[in-house]
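Running co-folding for glutamic acid.
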Amino acid sequence: MASSSPIFRFAPSPNGRLHLGHAYSALMNERLAARLQGEMLLRIEDIDLTRCRPEFEQGILEDLAWLGISFAPEVRRQSLHFDDYRQALGRLEAAGLVYPCFCSRQEIKEAVRQREATTGIPWPRDPDGAPLYPETCRALGEAEMRRRCEAGEPHVLRLAMDRALERRAGESLSYGRFDETGAEHEIAVDPARWGDVVLARKDVPTSYHLSVVVDDALQGVSHVVRGRDLEAATDIHVLLQRLLGLPTPRYHFHQLLSDETGQKLAKSRMSRSLADLRADGMKPDAIRRQLGFT
Ligand code: GLU
């Protein structure tokens, strides 16, 4: 449906209960959407079939309803849309920008260790601190790649970053970043710093990067509001949008909340969940006040 009103989305992963950091992100989306008279969508990012669980999704819906945040009625669940991601992947494959990689995490670590030992120079890291993929599998010939794929050897699919960037030769890549006042600045991106990123995992025909780009476009998202931890990854998203001929939304990156020890709130560190706070008798209004949304 064509719509000219701004479209925002909150896109949690149901791999645990929501904590205050998620509440902040959802409330920031709500605030900025209200300012621009935009619409709010909810997207469940559940491509990780081992870590995501229906009870966590149910928990997300309950927590958001309890906080009083409302969304457009139709919720998009990524796990129901693998065909959309397969199709996008097929287009990148047809353009010769994708290759299979059979390396395990351990093999990548070892290859990087060996190179560092031989050269005495630290191997480049991506903005999240992980070593860039040393492109080991690109040395396999076409026939060998095909043979191993046909033999059913588990593999991920990677973007050949240099070839992808060559296709965009001469075109500068950038996106519009907006702040809380609505002012906007053009930000240049540098996807090369991520190396040959994974576009499809071993078990599913997509990755976070691919599905977020496909979904933002399919859902007509015009304004992405998310944490600063995803700011650098936006470089990859802008490149994929250009390669796939998809529009680039505007982006706002909000601060990340930390706990008393200064650590970023995270499910993995067992930060207290909204459900815990609710069980302790905390009220939604108090959460909004505490987070600065009165
Ligand atoms: N699903 C991601 C998360 O829970 C957010 C993705 C995004 O906002 O682009 O961290």
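Result summary
The first helix runs from residue 20 to 35.
Strands lie at 7-10, 39-44, 76-77, 98-101, 156-159, 174-178, 184-188, 198-200, 223-227, 250-254.
Job closed.
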